[in-house]
Amino acid sequence: MRDTKESRLLLVLLIAIAFALITVDIRGGEDSPVDGARQAAASVFGPIENGVSSAVDPIGNAVTAVRESGERHDRLAQLERENAALKAELGSDDRSRSRLKQLDKLLGVAGKGQYGIKGAQVIAIGAAQGFSWTITIDAGAEDGIERDMTVLNGDGLVGRVTTVGPGTATVLLASDPDFTVGTRMEAGDELGFASGQGDRPLRVELLNGKAEIKKGDRLVTFGSQADKPFVPGVPVGVVSRVDPSGGDLTRTLYVTPYVNFSKLDVVGVVVQAPKKDPRDTVLPAKPKPTPTPTVTVTVTPSAPADGTDQPEQ
Prior knowledge:
six-stranded antiparallel beta barrel, MreC_beta-barrel_core, single chain, Cell/Rod_1, alpha+beta, cell shape, Cell shape-determining protein MreC
């Protein structure tokens, strides 16, 4: 429509009519004369409004989702924290069960050997006083610990006490190159001296160069005078290699220790030696050999190809 005088008058007239109709509708209330027209318009434009609404709803939902995402993220973070706390609690329980198992095994060894022990926990590992393979335990002079006492766990020989403080002590591990202990072969009198080699097997020099030793033989501590630094009968390890004798006065063995020196937690310090040598009673039971399964094959004669029975001979 062109912007003319007539068009302007028409626009003013339409606006005046619209205001008049609004006034009449408001004053008329439910009996408004334009109510019928409004219903007719609703029936025409209603479907269009619903279509527009359905098109807009996903956008509104997305806005709501974004608005609530912060709350959901907070809830997720809370669940993750609760899950981590639960795992930590379960881990703590697992550690407690592991320590109880170690303690039970240690008490079993002490009972078999009749060793009077003082239980302790490893609280540090590393260099101390020039030693490269040491641990620190949470028991000291106040607990009756003295220098040159034997230290063991549920598997066997751990080491000997070297330094004692009021509440802690330093233990030189059997794996340390400066460590030496007298040994005796199981069920025999072959004596030797075992020395640490770090993370390698212990090196044992037998005094008898002609001793008949084989892989799998086991050793225990021989014991020291006055039971210091070593009490007798503590399991040391299993022979993993035997060097040829070569006519030497001594014979060299390599022994895998029973104790895993990288996984030490609960240990026992022998504060009272046994009244008599336990000999081999503290050694674990020898594993039973696993029988080799045998397969028996039975051959059944096959029938003739033509299906007839073979005549009796």
